[in-house]
Design brief:
With 318 residues, the protein is α/β, with parallel strands linked by helices. The protein has helices spanning 5-16, 22-34, 40-51, 65-76, 81-86, 106-115, 136-148, 160-164, 168-182, 199-211, 230-247, 262-276, 293-306, and strands at 54-57, 98-101, 122-126, 153-157, 186-190, 216-218, 252-254, 288-290. The active site is at 218 (schiff-base intermediate with acetaldehyde), 254 (proton donor/acceptor).
Length: 318
């Protein structure tokens, strides 16, 4: 579905008039947080499902080839095999959805996954992550280099100043160039919602990102003061739904930043199920960006199987 010329102007004019009803969004967010979660075997099943949506992430200044190797091994074997056997899930090939690293570490991740004999995708952040405050030429080159090194998914950050100053066409043009630089790789566009100023801007930026060809829209870099929150997620999910109704195109959703507990992951799964339906509950359309979440999910599954909580040394490091 192409947006260009007159069609683009019409949509940009429509987008500029949009207003989000903030009190209604906050009421809906409160409902989600107040809801009781699933229990017992249903909880274990949902948690295993959540594992398959995780983009297992390390974005630290002290990342080394050995860190990346360990991350990739954990992505292939996210839950201890004896626990999976106890749940009769050992033959279901449960892995995380992807591993996510800095561009300079893509080669290490590709090599480690190849050595482990698995085809888990490698995602790379790019475009001056996390601030996006570098020259456009540099940002585009960063995408191309990550793809050359073997990344099949690119998590780009938008230029927040274009949102804050209402330059929607310029934002559209930049993301179109990101899309072109990605080639065959999937484009996941990080909106950095904690820095966009309002829920109305979150909706508008979501729409522009999808119009420009994003395969996913993502809440945050994980480096902002405010990361993935339910009010922001509701606005982004409604934008995805509106875009689907207008164009027939399904765009994925990725919350990231601050999602650390198994209980959190269940709330995110149920929110996506309610807002977009079961067809979005698959790795092609839903991801969770997280680094410590997997450890807590494995801990909860250990508790479900054994009836006691794991000691620190009982579970492998992620």
């Amino acid at each position: 579905y192409k947006f260009c010329g007159r069609g683009l102007s019409k949509y940009l004019s429509w987008i500029s008039k949009i207003q989000v009803n903030q009190p209604a969004v906050l009421r809906r967010a409160e409902q989600i947080q107040a809801r009781r979660t699933v229990k017992k075997e249903w909880q274990a099943a949902w948690l295993l499902k959540a594992v398959t949506f995780i983009d297992l992430t390390t974005l630290s200044g002290d990342d080394t080839p050995s860190n990346i190797q360990r991350l990739c091994y954990k992505a292939k074997y996210p839950i201890r095999e004896d626990l999976l056997k106890a749940l009769n899930m050992h033959d279901k090939d449960i892995t995380t959805a992807a591993v996510c690293v800095y561009p300079a570490r893509v080669c290490d991740a590709v090599k480690a996954l190849k050595a482990a004999g698995c085809s888990i995708p490698v995602a790379s952040v790019a475009t001056g992550f996390p601030a996006g405050q570098t020259h456009l030429k540099t940002r585009l080159e960063e995408i191309r280099l990550a793809v050359e090194d073997g990344a099949t998914e690119i998590d780009v950050v938008i230029n927040r100043s274009l949102v804050l100053t209402g330059q929607w066409e310029a934002l559209y043009d930049e993301i179109r160039q990101f899309r072109k630089a990605c080639g065959e790789a999937h484009l996941k566009t990080i909106l950095a919602t904690g820095e966009l100023g309002s829920l109305t801007n979150v909706y508008k930026a979501s729409m522009i990102a999808m119009m420009a060809g994003s395969d996913f829209i993502k809440t945050s870099t994980g480096k902002e003061t405010v990361n993935a929150t339910f009010p922001v997620a509701i606005v982004m999910l409604r934008a995805i739904r509106d875009f689907f109704w207008k164009t027939g195109n399904k765009v994925g959703f990725k919350p990231a930043g601050g999602i650390r507990s198994a209980k959190d992951s269940l709330a995110w799964l149920s929110l996506v199920k309610e807002e977009l339906g079961d067809e979005w509950l698959k790795p092609e359309l839903f991801r969770i960006g997280a680094s410590t979440l997997l450890s807590d999910i494995e801990r909860q599954i250990y508790h479900h199987v054994t009836g006691r909580y794991a000691a620190y040394h009982d579970l492998p490091m992620s």
